């Protein structure tokens, strides 16, 4: 088994042993992949010759090609199947069939809502899929392989096991490999989370997904395709349970599950009673049963949630934020702990020069130049370094940063340029009368390093990467320095903190969201960067290497803010511990090393510039990798959830009324008094249309309480009022021998009156739009009743019915008012009792 730098033994075992995969889908996919391959002979070719054509064909035929595993995304067919074949849709399909069988086609008015709800979900998820498929995991579609003694460019998928591949600066490692010759410096931050560049020499292992930042090497491919490190994590991400992360949607699903079970016996009882005991026709029995069942299901609330979330997703798309799952916006709005990485989230991915500090011991070297130019030492040094940077090629991020910062230079002409190598750790320029070197302090100063060690470590402890610029009195030949190097200046580099980071983190602090910085870098460095970004309590840091057990990790995540040297397995432990402590956790990441933690977080956010595995595993993708978009996502979530929560009580009024009235009808042996088309009319103008407009109103309040509890308690008084009014109307109507069609119309108008009373309360505080919505909804209902009476089963009422209607209409207001006060008083008593018992 191969040990990999930057990963602990447990991580390696997890990735290399099939038995460590606790998800059966991962195991099955690995076994399936292995069964497809035949036996293979391993080769260790000379790096100058590579494999022969016969050996390449042999490995390819046996199935040992570098074909990547499929990313963890759904197919269009799976998306359609998931949105169409739901229990929710099954109920309405059965009801539609029953209505068609009895010829009651006008009562199919509920179908457009169901179809729209399904299409919105499909369109949004397919759109997200299409965008994500444009993002690729390995941005190295081609590689240079040595075959039959000659280097040739081939597609990365055509590489086979034991191929010799030439990697140089700028290349991404496309499969796990072992260095056979040469030396490179690689960045494994997408895999291990550590931003440090790691030197790889002969015999060292290269990890798929890492980047070569300097040098060149020949490497033999050791693991290809699904065997590679990056593929193992991709399979783990693919097995991620989609689940329902949204508390609001979970509540709606619980409601539908309860109603879905309850409506079956209630529906059967209503049909049997109406058909056999009340002597109604089959058509009348089916129609009244469908009306009762439709009234019990919050189909419009699903549509409202889908439309509101879709509108939010379009708004966020304009800000380059992609919602992989629309429901994730609500979860993010409820988050109280946000876990972020340093590189790519707090800081830019690029390196930048922070300071130039002249070295006191080297001032003599600049005195002469100062006298000639009349300028200070820092200016003179800046131009010297500018000369060196100008002479070098931009083959790594460090040199690019130097070129950007040190733009001024002199007319000095270099005689010889010695580029940076990972072996010597320096670059140098020789002029006619002098020579300068730049590089790592230990390699430039050598035996003099101890003299400057304390000063250098002081800067390193503040989160800087320190380079030494020195004058050199020997020959620079590309080998280790043997002459005397006199330090002239320290150059302090760092990943710059994103410009909007302090403002972004200040927003989360104001909103009561705790930020945890989890990184693979040095904890002191991460702490300093977090302080610069304005993260609260950033001085509280810990080295995760000392956290040996899960208990240690759980205790630390509650105590500290900054975590350094964190392994992928520990990131997952931290997320799980926070969830167990009762927090709603969001995790941001861009690397393959983040996938396991992203999988377990309540809401996962990925940077599009990172690995495809992380992007596919996440619910929210920042397409421009700009973390400053996060407050906009949270605000959108709050607007949607708070407004839907306000509007949802309108829907639940109908559900409570239909459920209780159905029980009332069964208990008192009466036929359900309403038709499906009448339920649709009431739902359209007292619930659906106004709720849609109200859900798009601005709302930045913090989300409080449980969704279903909040909505139910707001809807209960109106639901009870409807049941009392309509139930009494039916009883009195039968007593005075009023026609059932008259009672049906009167009941529809009674429900409309209570609905508009509730809508008026929901619209508080009133503004121009809310007034227009309220008045417009009443006008719409009246218009449909007058001009489309047959479609919505609205008929004229007898004098007796009108008198009953007027009496019960007047009675609805005080009944609703006193029931609202009663429910509010009971809720207050309950809260006080809970507070007394829990002490919270």
Automatic annotation (TrEMBL):
Residues 139-234 form the P-type ATPase A domain. One of its GO terms (cellular component) is membrane. PANTHER family: CALCIUM-TRANSPORTING ATPASE. This is E1-E2 ATPase. The chain crosses the membrane at residues 84-104, 255-277, 289-311, 648-672, 678-696, 708-731, 743-760, 772-796, 802-823. Pfam families: E1-E2_ATPase (PF00122), Hydrolase (PF00702). CDD domains: P-type_ATPase (cd02609). It comes from the Bacteria. It is a multi-pass membrane protein. Coiled coil: none annotated. PROSITE patterns: ATPASE_E1_E2 (PS00154). Keywords: Membrane, Translocase, Transmembrane, Transmembrane helix. It comes from [Clostridium] hylemonae DSM 15053. One of its GO terms (molecular function) is ATP hydrolysis activity. The keyword Zinc does not apply. It is found in: Membrane. SUPFAM superfamilies: Calcium ATPase, transduction domain A (SSF81653), Calcium ATPase, transmembrane domain M (SSF81665), HAD-like (SSF56784), Metal cation-transporting ATPase, ATP-binding domain N (SSF81660). The keyword Nucleotide-binding does not apply.
């Amino acid at each position: 088994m191969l040990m990999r730098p930057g990963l602990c033994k447990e991580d390696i075992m997890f990735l290399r042993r099939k038995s460590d995969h606790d998800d059966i889908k991962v195991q099955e996919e690995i076994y399936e992949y292995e069964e497809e391959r035949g036996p293979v002979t391993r080769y260790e070719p000379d790096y100058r010759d590579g494999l022969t054509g016969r050996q390449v064909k042999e490995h390819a035929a046996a199935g040992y090609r570098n074909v990547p595993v499929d990313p963890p995304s759904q197919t269009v067919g799976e998306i359609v199947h998931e949105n169409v074949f739901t229990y929710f849709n099954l109920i309405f399909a059965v009801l539609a069939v029953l209505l068609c069988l009895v010829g009651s086609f006008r009562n199919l008015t509920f179908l457009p809502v169901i179809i729209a709800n399904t299409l919105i979900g499909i369109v949004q998820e397919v759109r997200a899929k299409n965008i994500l498929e444009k993002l690729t995991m390995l941005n190295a579609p081609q590689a240079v392989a040595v075959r039959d003694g000659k280097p040739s460019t081939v597609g990365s998928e055509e590489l086979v096991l034991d191929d010799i591949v030439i990697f140089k600066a700028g290349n991404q490692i496309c499969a796990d490999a072992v260095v056979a010759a040469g030396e490179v410096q690689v960045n494994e931050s997408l895999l291990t989370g550590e931003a440090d560049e790691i030197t790889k020499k002969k015999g060292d292992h290269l990890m798929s997904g890492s980047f070569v930042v300097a040098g060149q090497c020949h490497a033999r491919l050791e693991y290809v395709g699904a065997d590679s490190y990056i593929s193992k994590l991709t399979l783990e991400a693919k097995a991620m349970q989609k689940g329902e992360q949204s508390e609001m949607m979970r509540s709606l699903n619980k409601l539908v599950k309860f109603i879905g079970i309850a409506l079956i016996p209630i529906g059967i009882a209503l049909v049997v009673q109406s058909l056999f005991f009340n002597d109604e026709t089959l058509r009348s029995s089916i129609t009244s049963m469908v009306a009762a069942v439709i009234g019990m299901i919050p189909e419009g609330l699903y549509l409202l949630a889908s439309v509101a979330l879709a509108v939010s997703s379009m708004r966020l798309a304009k800000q380059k934020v992609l919602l992989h799952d629309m429901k994730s916006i609500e979860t993010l709005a409820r988050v109280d702990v946000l876990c972020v990485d340093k590189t790519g989230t707090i800081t830019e991915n690029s390196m930048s020069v922070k300071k130039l500090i002249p070295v006191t011991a080297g001032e003599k070297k600049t005195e002469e130049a100062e006298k000639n130019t009349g300028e200070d030492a820092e200016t003179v040094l800046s131009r010297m370094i500018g000369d060196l940077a100008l002479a070098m090629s931009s083959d790594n991020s460090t040199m690019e940063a130097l070129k950007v910062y040190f733009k001024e230079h002199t007319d000095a002409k270099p005689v010889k340029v010695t580029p940076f190598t990972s072996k010597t750790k320096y670059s140098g320029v020789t002029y006619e009368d002098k020579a300068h070197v730049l590089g790592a302090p230990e390699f430039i100063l050598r035996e003099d390093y101890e003299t400057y060690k304390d000063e250098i470590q002081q800067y390193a402890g503040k989160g800087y990467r320190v380079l030494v610029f020195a004058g050199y009195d020997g020959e620079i030949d590309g080998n280790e320095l043997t002459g005397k190097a006199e330090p002239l200046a320290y150059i302090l580099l760092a990943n710059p903190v994103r410009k909007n980071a302090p403002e972004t983190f200040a927003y989360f602090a104001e909103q009561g969201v705790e930020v945890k910085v989890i990184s693979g870098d040095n904890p002191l460095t991460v702490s300093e960067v977090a302080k610069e970004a304005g993260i609260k309590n950033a001085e509280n840091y810990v080295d995760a290497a000392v956290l040996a057990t899960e208990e240690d990790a759980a205790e630390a995540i509650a105590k500290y803010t900054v975590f350094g040297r964190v392994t992928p397995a520990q990131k997952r432990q931290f997320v799980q511990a926070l969830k167990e402590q009762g927090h709603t956790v969001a995790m941001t990441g861009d690397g393959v090393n983040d996938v396991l933690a992203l999988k377990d977080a309540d809401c996962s956010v990925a940077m599009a510039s990172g690995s495809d595995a992380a992007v596919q595993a996440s619910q929210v993708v920042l397409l421009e990798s700009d973390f400053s978009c996060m407050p906009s996502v949270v605000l959108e979530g709050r607007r949607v959830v708070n407004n839907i929560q306000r509007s949802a009580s309108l829907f639940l009024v109908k559900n409570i009324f239909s459920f209780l009235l159905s029980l009332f009808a069964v208990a008192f042996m009466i036929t359900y008094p309403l038709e499906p088309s009448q339920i649709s009319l009431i739902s359209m103008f007292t619930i659906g249309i106004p709720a849609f407009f109200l859900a798009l109103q601005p709302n930045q309040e913090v989300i409080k309480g449980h969704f279903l509890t909040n909505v139910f308690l707001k809807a209960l008084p109106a639901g009870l009022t409807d049941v009392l009014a309509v139930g009494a109307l039916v009883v009195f109507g039968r007593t005075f021998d009023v026609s059932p069609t008259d009672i049906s119309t009167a009941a529809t108008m009674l429900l409309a009156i209570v609905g508009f009373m509730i809508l008026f309360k929901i619209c508080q505080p009133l503004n121009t739009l809310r007034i227009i919505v309220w008045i417009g909804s009443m006008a719409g209902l009246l218009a449909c009743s007058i001009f489309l009476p047959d479609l919505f089963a609205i008929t004229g009422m007898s004098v007796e019915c009108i008198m009953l209607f007027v009496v019960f209409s007047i009675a609805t207001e005080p009944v609703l008012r006193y029931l609202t006060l009663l429910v509010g008083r009971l809720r207050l008593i309950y809260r006080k009792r809970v507070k007394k018992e829990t002490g919270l």
